[in-house]
Amino acid sequence: MAEQNHSCHYNESMGFFYNNSGADDKWDKTQLILVQVVGSLFCCFILVSNAMVVAAVITNKRFHYPFYYLLSNLAASDFLAGIAYVYLMFNTGEMSRRLTVKEYFIRQGLLDISLSASLSNLLVIALERYISVMNWKVHSNLTKRRVTLLIVLVWAISIFMGAVPSLGWNCICNVSDCSQLAPIFSRSYLIFWSMSNLVVFLVMVAIYMRIYTYVKKKTMMLTPHTSGSINRKRTPIKLIKTVMVVLGAFVICWTPGLVVLLLDGLNCKSCKVMKLKRWLLLLAVLNSVMNPCIYSYKDEEMWTTFKNLMRCIGNGTRRQRSTKANTRPLSSAHDTGNSQLPSEEMKSDDQGILKT
């Protein structure tokens, strides 16, 4: 039995690992179709809305600052999350048991990369906000080169974190260490993954608590020396509120899932983690849906840019329709011109008959 547990099973399908871990990932057919239809609508919204965030930052020169570059990178990670959710939805239930080990690594790797990218982006944005607030500026002095390096670093770390299980930290050669939520991931990896993300959550919360207390103290110091209230649009507090709402939504949506992953890693038999899996996935999808709504609601300039982009798209489609419509009358007029010739000849013949 020990030899079987420590032999490698790279050629087995995922059904072997699901049976080994005792994970029940079966879906009712009607329920699965409903999830795929509703999930596809959500994913379409995620893809379109986050693509519009990136387009808004590129097209609007008022967004050409480090904060908005990092915010567009966060939208890009949500865009990747939308792709990952589509791949997951159509490879779950009975389909998940038919997947090969490589296909399962791809499925989970996309999710892990998108989550790592979102978390890394939020951490970098928190540091950028901290630098700007400590200098009492709306935007930090980070150069475009440094911002680009930070974005590249975020994606390099995210890709590495997503590839760690496929690089060897798995239970393919030691099935007794397999988890239930991810049947080819080692329980030790789940503990590392969940704990590291929860620690980053705490670090970000601590940074924003420090920012909040500093801004409050600074505002109280400046108020007696100002004739009126401080213009909040000219202070960093406006952008901080946007990021704090995004961070709050991220923590609320992902913390339950990370806690359940930690419990699975600790081999909690009475926790019934598989029953919570679907609801936790729904929370993760909702987080990617919420972020573009938060950007547009909390930032008037972003919402205005969204409307301008939609107006440009609408005008583009109208122009295409109008050009098509204009070509049709020209051809029809030519045809009618030719068709009028016989009628004129008939009229002349009729007049000749009347004269006779």
UniProtKB/TrEMBL annotation:
Comp. bias regions, Basic and acidic residues: 344-356
Keywords, ordered alphabetically: Cell membrane, G-protein coupled receptor, Glycoprotein, Membrane, Receptor, Transducer, Transmembrane, Transmembrane helix
Pfam families: 7tm_1 (PF00001)
Subcellular location: Cell membrane
G-protein coupled receptors family 1 profile domain span: 49-295
Highest taxon of source: Eukaryota
Record's keyword annotation contains RNA-binding: no
One annotated Gene Ontology cellular component of this protein: plasma membrane
Transmembrane segments: 33-58, 70-90, 110-127, 147-169, 189-211, 239-259, 279-297
Region (Disordered): 317-356
Bias (Polar residues) ranges: 323-342
Gene Ontology molecular function, alphabetical: G protein-coupled receptor activity
Entry keyword Cell membrane: yes
InterPro entries attached to this UniProt entry: GPCR_Rhodpsn, GPCR_Rhodpsn_7TM
Topology with respect to the bilayer: Multi-pass membrane protein
PANTHER family: G-PROTEIN COUPLED RECEPTOR (PTHR22750)
Protein name, entry field: Lysophosphatidic acid receptor 3
Species: Solea senegalensis
